[in-house]
Amino acid sequence: MMPKFVITGGAGYIGSHMAIRLVQDGHIVKVIDKTPKSSATLLSTLNNNNFSYLEADICNSDLDSHILGFDTVIHFAANTDAKIGFENPDIDFQQGIFQTFKVLQAMKKSSVKKIIFSSSGTVYGDTIIPTSENVSSPSPISMYGASKLASENLINAFCHMYDMKSWIFRIANVIGKDSRKGVIFDLIKKLQKDSQLLDVLGNGDQSKDYVYIDDCIDAILHAYEKSDEKINLYNIGSDSSISVKEIVQIILQEMNLSPKINYLGGPDGWKGGGWEGDITRVHLDTSKIKKTGWAQKMFSKEIIKRAVKDIL
Ligand SMILES: NC(=O)c1ccc[n+]([C@@H]2O[C@H](COP(=O)([O-])OP(=O)(O)OC[C@H]3O[C@@H](n4cnc5c(N)ncnc54)[C@H](O)[C@@H]3O)[C@@H](O)[C@H]2O)c1
User: How far apart (Å, rounded) are the C-alpha atoms in residues 53 and 6?
Assistant: First the structure.
């Protein structure tokens, strides 16, 4: 029997791509998201007998009856704007920790035994790179990262106490076709408004690990199929990173522009012009997931080039 999946937050970027892929592969898929289906850009026209869509706010709903009979919950719903947590830490508590608890409670009540969870590389905070899953004590420096780590811990406890299994993925920055947020999108929008001056947060030396959307979906499904421990924990990244300065150069080349560039941060990267809680250097060690047979097809630089072309 093909497993049946519920995807919370399935109207979002990664969730929509996951839903489309699973339906294409012949699975029964239900998306639960607070976004109305008509506004779920990639899913609004997906008509397939195996696919259903429930509009619901998970924080205010009891999901038990809606997930009954499914094998696996793919829990993607979360606040995904990490910057907001500084002004409003309540958001990451409600839409991160509390929301994960609600999902786990519903799984317990309806005897759904498997959960796939989208955690994040932000759980590690500023630490040695490349960062492996074996870091003895991950120390997040943002509310977003803290809510992901707390959610992981709740999942661990539910798995041990109620005979569940989990696949937890600490994911780098996901971009690709249809990306409509993040540094590249923001910089392109700024340049389209003013092609003479470009304000860039930080000092430009901050560097991040990017993973292409298709590689990310493949990695999740591959590890889900190939590993069967009680807790299966993996980093997902592209084993490469790229600095903001390099990203700016790629964008300017593609747009054929040469504005004055104003880096707003001081020597400490984001500080002095950016947002609290951001990590200046991210590069995830992916050797563990590679041992299962998965490998990324694209690296950070080509991912950025492709995303810039797509957005333009
Ligand atoms: N995109 C990335 O670079 C990245 C990196 C690491 C981890 N992640 C994690 O992967 C998951 C998916 O990310 P994404 O980029 O697709 O985000 P997204 O913002 O595009 O999608 C999140 C979805 O969750 C839904 N949602 C949030 N709160 C909800 C609630 N209370 N009830 C119902 N629906 C709710 C939103 O409506 C949205 O459709 C998130 O958990 C995110 O933290 C993303």
Answer: 10
Q: 96: which residues sit within 8 A by CB, 6+ positions away?
A: 78, 79, 143, 144, 147, 148, 150, 151
**How far, in Å, is the centroid of ligand 1 from the Cα of 234?**
19
Task: Report all structural domains of the chain as residue ranges with CATH numbers, in order of start.
Answer: 5-174+211-236 (3.40.50.720), 176-209+240-311 (3.90.25.10)
Reported pTM = 0.96
- pLDDT value of residue 83: 83
Nearest CA to ligand 1 atom 36: 9
Specify the higher pLDDT residue, 45 or 192: 192
Whether the CB of 312 sits within 6 Å of ligand 1: no
Terminal-to-terminal C-alpha distance of the chain: 43
Provide the pLDDT for residue 85: 86
* Closest atom of ligand 1 to CA, residue 16: 16
Instruction: State if residue 171 touches ligand 1 by the CB under 6 angstroms criterion.
Output: yes
